[in-house]
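in:
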């Protein structure tokens, strides 16, 4: 999660919503990404989507079986759907997104075999998000 947090800080510095993601396979980071929605002018350029694409490219296939996604914010419905199709083994997110998070649907949007957990570095990731929006509104 520390590496995902570093990616979120990069996004923060670029004026992107500070979400970072990494994908791990066999105890090795195979993909890391942050939000690119502003730079790419693309609402689908979430950190998770960027990381999925990078990991699939690294592995040479579209399925992420045996992989874990670490992400600083609970995935939205779109990202949960992409994670479903990628068949990632585990999703670990730091802080909940009560407004847009997929957990509002009781994690039913994730693949049935995907384990979902949260809370690692919750305060740090939540504080970064709060700081970002405070500065935007400010």
């Amino acid at each position: 999660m520390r590496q995902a947090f570093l990616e979120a800080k990069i996004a923060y510095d670029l004026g992107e919503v500070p979400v970072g993601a990494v994908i791990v396979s066999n105890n090795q980071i195979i993909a890391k990404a942050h939000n690119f929605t502003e730079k790419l002018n693309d609402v689908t350029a979430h950190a998770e989507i960027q990381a999925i694409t990078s990991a699939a490219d690294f592995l040479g296939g579209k399925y992420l079986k045996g992989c874990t996604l670490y992400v600083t914010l609970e995935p939205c419905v779109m990202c949960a759907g992409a994670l479903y199709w990628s068949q990632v083994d585990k999703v670990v997110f730091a802080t909940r997104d009560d407004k847009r998070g997929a957990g509002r649907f009781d994690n039913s949007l994730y693949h049935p075999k995907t384990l979902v957990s949260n809370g690692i570095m919750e305060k740090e990731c939540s504080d970064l998000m709060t700081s970002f929006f405070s500065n935007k509104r400010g």
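note: Strands lie at 20-25, 28-34, 67-73, 90-95, 115-118.
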